[in-house]
Write a sequence for this structure.
């Protein structure tokens, strides 16, 4: 009997020992897990290794894992595994955006992942000013080193809508150009659809051509509808447009600037773009007009003006308008007087500057020029 009691006591104690052992292992396991979790969390939320602000690029199509590997390679984080696995479980959004992101010095993995998923990438854009030719636009696109590839085919004149077009570094030059052309296609269709009735224009292409002339004729935005109305009035009257920018485009083909006045021989030469010599519109646009110029042609002012000439020596001063040739001649004479005075003043300033440099070289005070 005594032996059986001893055996039962040992058996009972053994079960408790096993249970205690299991509990001990469980506690140790929990401590290890908690410690591991604390370590991973401290790595994820703690300060990162960078010592200065840096830019990180997420390539198009990068996953969280591939972005994490590149972050570790470039020294932004210490562990790609923690970034992708732990971050992928504790953050609501784990879809990284394509683009360049500014990562502050010491940014934690948590900060970086939130920036890549919810932040705003650095903006890169190609800007085409109103009135630029396709040659100028293509040159700017090709000069942007963040873009890749080549432009497959030279676009047609007037097919680009001026403006700023965002892109992600690594995008192709052709894709940016495609956006510009698509924007013009859509804008022109919308403007043509909403145009005034009775315009002497037979197609969207003709509206585009006239808008390009308006764009090149005035540097004052508020004048566009007024200038457009002059040309519309001339078309209705069967008068030639007589626009200097059309002659210039015929000479340069939009590939350069003329940087001089027109010669008499150029004004008298009968070319497809010389609207002093041809009836109606030239065969193509002479530039890429902006949306305001398109709208100005679609909705020109209502007036009887048939002529205009520059008001002053600089384009920002705008133009003066006339309904008849006699008044126009008076305006032209006044413009020539103002231009001559401006040229004389510029010449006097240049001469004064030249004399000042000469006197400086000679070590003397320059003579005053009045």
């Amino acid at each position: 009997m005594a032996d059986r009691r001893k055996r039962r006591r040992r058996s009972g104690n053994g079960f408790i020992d096993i249970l205690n052992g299991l509990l001990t292992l469980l506690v140790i396991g929990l401590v290890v897990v908690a410690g591991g979790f604390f370590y991973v969390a401290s790595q994820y939320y703690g300060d990162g290794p960078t010592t200065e602000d840096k830019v990180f690029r997420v390539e198009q199509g990068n996953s969280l894992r591939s972005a994490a590997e590149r972050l570790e390679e470039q020294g932004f984080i210490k562990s790609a595994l923690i970034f992708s696995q732990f971050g992928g479980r504790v953050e609501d959004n784990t879809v990284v955006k394509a683009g360049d992101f500014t990562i502050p010095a010491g940014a934690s993995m948590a900060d970086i992942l939130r920036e890549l998923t919810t932040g705003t990438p650095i903006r890169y854009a190609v800007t085409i000013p109103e009135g630029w030719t396709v040659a100028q636009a293509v040159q700017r696109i090709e000069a942007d080193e963040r873009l890749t590839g080549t432009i497959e085919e030279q676009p047609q004149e007037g097919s680009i809508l001026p403006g700023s077009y965002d892109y992600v570094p690594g995008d192709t030059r052709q894709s940016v150009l495609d956006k510009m052309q698509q924007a013009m296609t859509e804008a022109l269709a919308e403007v043509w659809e909403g145009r005034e009735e009775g315009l002497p224009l037979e197609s969207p292409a003709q509206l585009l051509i006239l808008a390009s002339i308006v764009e090149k004729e005035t540097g004052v935005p508020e004048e566009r509808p007024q200038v457009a109305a002059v040309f519309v009035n001339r078309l209705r009257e069967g008068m030639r447009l007589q626009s200097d920018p059309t002659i210039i485009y015929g000479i340069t083909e939009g590939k350069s600037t003329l940087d001089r006045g027109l010669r008499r021989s150029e004004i008298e030469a009968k070319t497809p773009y010389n609207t002093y010599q041809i009836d109606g519109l030239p065969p193509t646009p002479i530039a890429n007009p902006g949306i305001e110029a398109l709208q100005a042609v679609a909705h020109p002012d209502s007036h009887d003006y048939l002529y205009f000439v520059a008001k002053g020596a600089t384009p920002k001063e705008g133009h003066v308008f006339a309904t008849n040739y006699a008044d126009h001649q008076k305006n032209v004479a006044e413009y020539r007087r103002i231009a001559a005075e401006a040229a004389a003043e510029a010449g006097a300033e240049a001469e004064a500057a030249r004399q000042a440099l000469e006197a400086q070289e000679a070590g003397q005070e320059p003579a005053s020029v009045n």
